[in-house]
Amino acid sequence: MAGVSTAPATFPMSLDKPATVVVKRPAKNERGHGEEQEEVLVIEGIEVNKDEFVKFDVFINDEDEEVASGAGPEKTEFAGSFVNVPRKKWEDGGDGSGKVIKTRLRIGISELLEDLGVEDDDEHVVVKLVPKCDNVHVVIGGVKIEIE
C-alpha cells in the first residue's frame, strides 16, 4: 500500500486491479467514546454478475502511517472479504448469464482501528481493495465509514 495518492477516487470504479482509496472518517464528535459506538466501513454499490465467482479482500491502514517513510504492509490490517458464490442457473428460469446484482459490504472496524493505533483526531484511513479473481465483472459504487 506504499505510495498512496490523496487524490479522491472516482466512483463508480471497476475493480480489475488493486485499488487504494483514502476514506474520510465521521467527525470526532460523532464517533463518541461509548463502547456501543462502532465505526463501520461500507463498500456500496458492488455490482457483480450473479453467475461468476467473485472475491476481493479489504485492507485498512492509518493514513499517517501510510505516508510516513518506511511504513508499509506491515502496518496494514486485514478487515475482511467480499465473496459472491454463483447462483444456480435454474433459479431465474433461464440460464442466468449476464445477470448483474448490486449489493454492499459492511465491516465493523473500530477494534481494527484501535489495533492500528489510529487516533481519535485522525480524519482519514486508507482502504485497499484487492481482487482475487481475474476477468470478472466487479464495480464499486463508493466507500465510506458510518457510525452504528
Automatic annotation (TrEMBL):
Q: Which keywords does the record carry?
A: Oxidoreductase
Keyword Oxidoreductase attached: yes
Q: Where are the transmembrane segments?
A: none
Q: Which parts of the sequence belong to the Polyphenol oxidase C-terminal domain? A: 11-146
InterPro entries in the record: Polyphenol_oxidase_C
Q: Which domain of life is it from?
A: Eukaryota
User: Which species is listed as the source?
Assistant: Helianthus annuus (Common sunflower)
Is the Nucleus keyword given for this protein? no
Q: Into which EC class is this enzyme placed?
A: oxidoreductase
Which EC number(s) does the record attach to this protein? 1.10.3.1
GO molecular function terms listed in the Swiss-Prot or TrEMBL record: catechol oxidase activity
Q: What is this protein called?
A: Catechol oxidase
